[in-house]
Amino acid sequence: MRLRMRLKRKIRIVVVSATVVLFLSLWFIIRLRHCDECDEQLASVNFTETECITGTPCTYANQVALRVIVITSNRSRSLARLLESLDVVELDGDSGSLEIFVDCDERGLVDPETVKTAYAFHWRRGLVGVHLQTSHAGVNGQWIDAWRPATNDTREIVLILDDDGMGVSRYFYRWIKAVHGRYGDEPDFAGTALTIGRDRLPNSPGIEPVYMYRGVGTWGFSPKASVWRGFQDWFHAHSQRSKFRPHFPDAVARTSDDSGDSGTTWEQWFDYYASKEKMFVVYSNLKDYNDNRSSCFGTKYRVSGLNVPNDDPVTYCKLIERWDDRYVSFPEYITRFDLDGNRIGKY
User: Is 68 helix (H, G, I), strand (E, B) or coil?
Assistant: First the structure.
């Protein structure tokens, strides 16, 4: 009887041990497979070699004709919609690279769905780089440090986009390339923006296809390389001064839910810098030029957030779907507007 009980006990021990070993083996195999799948996914998406450091302007190892930078944090659906519109952009044979910056919260945590959306995207127009911030960068840090031009005279064109409901026309690159080509050597040219964002000009620019305005547009901004380098250096030097804040009485008020820098947005900093350096941003005037009040190269959808309870398909303007060479028939003399919306002559 005792012998039989000892035998049963030994059998139970062997069975339990075998079960544990089998379970651990299966767990280890599953983990290996999972990691392999992750590695394969990363290898197939993150082709760019540059590793950007939070808080430091990022200089890229490769140079391309167009570098699109998308900044995001926790809006996976909005990000997916923007990436979908970028996938059909016309590069006209030029090279491109797409960089997606995902910010983390104050605890250092990133939104998993947003990260998943970023890594899952395969851009048909060029390379993709996904950059996860290691500490909370905020809106200022995301915008200002996402691109450090290699030189002042680099031919690389960059477009910085916030994923907050943005959508772009497939022809945006053709237009901003023409703008940089026409005005890039002008001393008062700070860059170009796809859309001004809201009706900030009390005076109409007329029927010219473009105009200059001193305020920067956040709905797709393409800065001039030398200006952006100068602005970065100036911002990082002056933002460390606790008592200095960019302020001028005639500035159009700007607000932000998350400036990342003591209550002042990067737009306010740039507007102040542009005013100090007497520079302007070029905008399209297609609403008046096409006489339909809806044409644009970049638009914004109403997405759920602080002021919008639910996603709304209504957009600020309708994206250009057909190209017309008249869009880049720039005038010999371009109309300039100050921040208060008044026309100015020589500046």
Answer: strand
In sequence order, the 6+-apart residues with CB closer than 8 A to the CB of 192 are 176, 179, 180, 183, 221, 222, 281, 282, 283
Structure tokens at 259: 């400036």
The answer to whether the beta carbons of residues 129 and 48 sit under 8 Å apart is: yes
Could you give the strand order of the β-sheet that contains 298-302, starting from the edge strand earlier in sequence? 166-168, 298-302, 312-315
CA atoms within 13 A of residue 136's CA, in its CB half-sphere: 11
Encoded tokens for 122: 């395969």
Provide the H-helix boundaries in 100-220.
Answer: 112-120, 138-145, 172-183
Residue 31's φ and ψ, nearest 5 degrees, are: -60, -45
Contact 274, 214 (CB under 8 A): yes
The DSSP secondary-structure symbol of 328 reads: G
Distance CA 192, CA 180 (A): 8
Please report the beta strands in the chain, taking only residues with DSSP state E, as ranges in sequence order: 66-72, 96-102, 127-132, 157-162, 166-168, 189-195, 210-213, 219-223, 280-284, 295-296, 298-302, 312-315, 318-319, 336-337, 343-344
pLDDT digits (tens, 9 = 90+) for 137-191: 999 999 999 999 999 999 999 999 998 788 999 999 999 999 999 999 999 999 9
- How far is the C-alpha of 255 from the C-alpha of 207, rounded, in Å? 31
**Is the sign of the CA dihedral 48, 137, 303, 254 positive or negative?**
negative
pLDDT of residue 230: 97
What are phi and psi for residue 51, nearest 5 degrees? -110, 110
What gap in Å lies between CA 192 and CA 199, rounded to an integer?
17
Give SS3 for 245: coil
Burial of 318 (0-12, 13-18, 19+ CB in 10 A): middle
Q: Which of 119-123, 290-294, 321-325 has the lowest mean pLDDT?
A: 290-294
Quick one: tokens of 110? 């990133």
